[in-house]
Design goal:
- Chain B: Catalyzes the 2-thiolation of uridine at the wobble position (U34) of tRNA, leading to the formation of s(2)U34.
- Chain B: Keywords: ATP-binding, Cytoplasm, Disulfide bond, Methyltransferase, Nucleotide-binding, RNA-binding, Transferase, tRNA processing, tRNA-binding.
- Chain B: One of its GO terms (molecular function) is tRNA-uridine 2-sulfurtransferase activity.
- The structure holds two protein chains of two kinds.
- Chain A has a seven-stranded mixed β-sheet, with helices on both faces. Chain A has a three-stranded antiparallel β-sheet with strand order 9-10-14.
- In chain A, β5, α6 and β6 form a beta-alpha-beta unit.
- Chain A has two domains: 133 residues, Aspartate Aminotransferase, domain 1 (Alpha-Beta Complex); 242 residues, Aspartate Aminotransferase, domain 2 (3-Layer(aba) Sandwich), CATH 3.40.640.
- By secondary structure, chain A is α/β, with parallel strands linked by helices.
- Chain A is built from 13 helices and 14 strands.
- By secondary structure, chain B is of the alpha+beta class.
- Chain B has three domains: 181 residues, 3-Layer(aba) Sandwich (Rossmann fold), CATH 3.40.50.620; 62 residues, Adenine nucleotide alpha hydrolases-like domains (SH3 type barrels); 94 residues, Translation factors (Elongation Factor Tu (Ef-tu), domain 3).
- Chain B contains seven helices and 16 strands.
- In chain B, the strands form four sheets. Chain B has a six-stranded antiparallel beta barrel. A four-stranded mixed β-sheet of chain B has the order 8-7-10-9, with no helix packed on it.
- In chain B, α1 packs parallel to α2.
- The longest helix of chain B has 20 residues.
- The chains are: A alpha/beta, B alpha+beta.
- The interface between A and B is medium-sized, with 23 and 28 residues.
């Protein structure tokens, strides 16, 4: 059976989430209906909202359920921008860290292309951490918002969110954190963070896909993306009570187990990192070696194509990722690694392994045992597809 | 797997023949269109999805491999530079030579595969000595051995064409429908895949640039002007808009395109008849003529058929290898004149159904002598 080491892409439903989800799917009632069945659905929905809020150190009134992380991020980035720029546009600048997820990069680019926003990327260092002095220099009263990953989804580096919020607060600038990758792996306390907005997704913590949340501080305002019945703050559309219930169960479990879970994951991750380094000495760990997500191990292998490594590992029964975005299934050199200063050639040999609750020591050891043969074969394949030296 | 019907059926047949098959779709463009329109273009996201759905039905793994950089350099840029040099390249052959049976094959072998199987209509036959030969497909109307003529022995040894023995395309479509492939009735691809609207001249004009130049008769007299030599192909009659009528009042045709001085040479139709071609960059698809026992000395002439375009009829001819200094030329003399030959085209040499080899046409000799007052 395949060994799944791609939990950052999506993590399997836990049995307790699956049971709660299936049971909730059988319940009739629109949470917005006034009758008893509607009220029953509403009760399920609001209990779930409380669970999600509690898992994030937020109040339930601050939680807007969405279709997932991408919608949450779009609502935060565009919604905050619009709310801060009711005509005339007074705060056209949007600051995002370099190496953000495409949901942020593309939402911001859209604001630049269609709304006249000025998008500025704040540099990250070779470990993937934001350059705080560059951020401080860029901040001013004409900045609409700052958006930054709480932890990078590819290389796992955890950002100094408190420092970012403090710098932005000096100019009254709201900060949005994309916590999709961090959620369930490190403690997140929305109120303590001082963030204006925070995005999470259910399926990264053992919940179902198609459900996420934007946590929006009472003091913050977003202009909605989706208009209609005003069912939630900042979002219209019939609410998915069953999805929320499953999300709530997953969120509660994530918080309940977090301390023990993160320690256990860190042990597995460190075993994986040490094992890879010993088995393949030329492997280079990317991302911050210390301030990184407990389930994330990310390496580059010089002279290999990431997609060759991925293919060979897939054939050998291991599901991993190159970590970078795909277009029609074509892996591109990671913009995160490029922002960290890697050359395009080095960035192409990337492999991300992400662990979670189902991962075992035996699986990690099996991966380490399989890797050297895979790397040597991928090295032999090299950059064959880039080689233009072949004569006529 | 291109996302078309042929490669889908080829993959299914390879699986049924007992091979361990993985579906690979080549990403050849960094900016794929999102949806295909009609029969034009390729490598869209829709094609990739079609290929993946076929792989799902067959039950094989499927991956997209990115050859876009190499495709741009070896096929697209090559196409532009060949045109700029006044030659007429065949980008599909270039793609077979450099991408499908080179970059892809090399990578596949390095990753542990034995062969590349494609949906081309051609056959590989093993002779009594165990040597592989490339032959025309059973379905002559769909035969694609011409565009595979650039394959060398090593490439042929690692290639499989599961559709080669099928009598007709209709049978392949019927089989695809039976297998439940959604692409069973997908239109065939035509034209050049990286020129999705089919406007080759417009596409080239953007890249080669268009400068006014003169149109000459073979004797050097100026008979008109043009808006860019690249827009003309040998054999073309329309669109010349010459101000000076021909001496005999008969229509004139493009005989030659000279990009270096941006001139186009025109003349009577019979001047298009080519009595001899000389080709360079010769390759043999398997055993060469000596090894095949066709000739005893490499320079001996031999009877063959020559085909100069993908859809041209083969013409009986005599071919011989001539050494010009250090390099070899293949001189081919057709028994009846060839028509519409342009430098840069590939001449594929057949003996019966067998592809013996190929060369890139470098020079041509007209069947009608150039008038005495010729300018060159």
């Amino acid at each position: 059976m395949a060994i799944y080491l791609d939990h950052a892409a999506t993590s399997p439903l836990t049995p307790e989430v699956l049971a709660a989800y299936v049971s909730a799917l059988g319940v009739v009632g629109n949470p917005s209906s006034i009758h008893s069945q509607g009220q029953n659905a509403k009760r399920m929905l609001e209990e779930a909202r409380e669970q999600v809020a509690a898992s994030l150190g937020a109040d339930s009134v601050e939680v807007t359920f969405t279709s997932g992380g991408t919608e949450s991020i779009n609502l935060a980035v565009k919604g905050l921008y619009w709310a801060r720029n009711k005509s005339p546009a007074l705060r056209p600048r949007v600051l995002i860290a370099a190496g953000e997820h495409h949901a942020t990069v593309d939402a911001a680019s859209w604001l630049g292309a269609f709304e006249g926003a000025i998008i500025e990327e704040v540099a990250i260092d070779e470990a993937g951490r934001i350059d705080l002095s560059a951020l401080e220099a860029a901040l001013a009263d004409d900045v609409a918002l700052v958006s930054i990953l709480w932890a990078n989804n590819e290389v796992g580096t955890i950002q100094p969110i408190a420092d970012v919020v403090a710098l932005a607060a000096a100019h009254g600038v709201p900060v949005h954190a994309d916590a999709v990758a961090a959620y369930g792996y490190i403690p997140l306390d929305f109120h303590a963070s001082g963030l204006a907005a925070l995005s999470v997704s259910a399926h990264k913590i053992g919940g179902p896909t198609g459900t996420g949340a934007l946590v929006l501080a009472r003091s913050a305002t977003v202009i909605p993306l989706i208009h209609g019945g005003n069912q939630q703050r900042g979002r219209s559309g019939t609410q998915d009570a069953a999805g929320a219930v499953a999300f709530g169960v997953a969120a509660s479990a994530a918080v309940r187990d977090l301390a023990a879970h993160s320690v256990a994951l860190q042990v597995l991750r460190d075993r994986l990192i040490a094992g890879v380094r010993e088995a393949v000495p030329q492997a280079i760990l990317r991302g911050d070696p210390v301030d990184r997500l407990p389930g994330n191990a990310h390496f580059t292998f010089a002279g290999c194509e990431g997609d060759s490594l991925l293919f060979l590992l897939d054939v050998a029964g291991f599901s991993v990722s190159t970590g970078s975005a795909c277009q029609a299934g074509v892996p591109e050199a990671s913009h995160v690694l490029l922002a960290m200063g890697l050359s395009e050639a080095d960035a192409r040999g990337a492999l991300r392994m992400t662990l979670n609750h189902t991962t075992t020591t035996d699986e990690v050891d099996a991966f380490i045992a399989a890797l050297p043969a895979v790397v040597s074969r991928a090295t032999a394949a090299g950059y064959a597809d880039r080689d233009v030296s072949r004569g006529a | 797997m291109s996302g078309g019907v042929d490669s889908a059926v080829a993959a299914a047949r390879a699986v049924e023949a007992g091979h361990d098959v993985v579906g690979v779709h080549l990403a050849l463009s960094r900016m794929p269109g999102t949806l295909r329109t009609g029969s034009r273009g390729c490598c869209t996201i829709e094609d990739s999805m079609d290929a993946q759905r076929a792989a799902n039905i067959i039950g094989i793994p499927y991956y997209v491999w990115d050859f876009s950089e190499r495709f741009k350099q070896d096929v697209v840029d090559d196409f532009v530079s060949e045109y700029s040099a006044g030659r007429t390249p065949n980008p599909c052959m270039r793609c077979n030579e450099r991408i499908k049976f080179a970059a892809l094959l090399e990578k596949a072998i390095a990753l542990g595969f034995d062969a590349v199987a494609t949906g081309h209509y051609a056959n590989i036959v093993t002779d009594a000595g165990g040597n592989k030969q490339l032959h025309r497909a059973a379905a002559w109307a769909k035969d694609q051995s011409y565009v595979l003529g650039v394959l060398n022995t090593e490439q042929i040894n690692h290639s499989m064409f599961p559709l080669g023995a099928t009598p007709s395309k209709a049978e392949v479509r019927a089989e695809a429908a039976e297998r439940g492939f959604s692409v069973a009735s997908k239109p065939d691809s035509h034209d050049i895949c990286f020129i999705p609207d089919g406007d080759t001249r417009g596409w080239l004009a953007e890249r080669v640039g268009a400068e006014k130049g003169t149109i000459l008769e073979r004797d050097g007299s100026v008979v008109g002007t043009h808006e860019g030599a690249h827009a003309f192909t040998v054999g073309q009659r329309r669109g010349l808009s010459l101000g000076v009528p021909s001496p005999d009042g008969r229509p004139r045709f493009v005989l030659e395109v000279r990009p270096k001085d941006n001139t186009v040479v025109v003349g009577p139709k019979e001047a298009l008849d080519i009595a001899e071609i000389a080709g360079i960059k010769i390759s043999w698809a398997g055993l060469d003529p000596v090894q095949s026992g066709i000739v005893t000395d490499p320079s001996d002439p031999f009877e063959c058929e020559v085909q100069i375009r993908a859809h041209a009829d083969p013409v009986p001819a005599v071919a011989r290898v001539v050494m010009v200094g250090e390099s070899a030329e293949l001189v081919v003399t057709p028994h009846v004149p060839l028509n519409g030959v342009a430098p840069g085209q590939t001449a594929v040499i057949y003996v019966g159904t067998r592809v013996l080899g190929q060369c890139t046409i470098d020079r041509t000799v007209s069947a009608v002598p150039v008038p005495a007052a010729a300018a060159h």
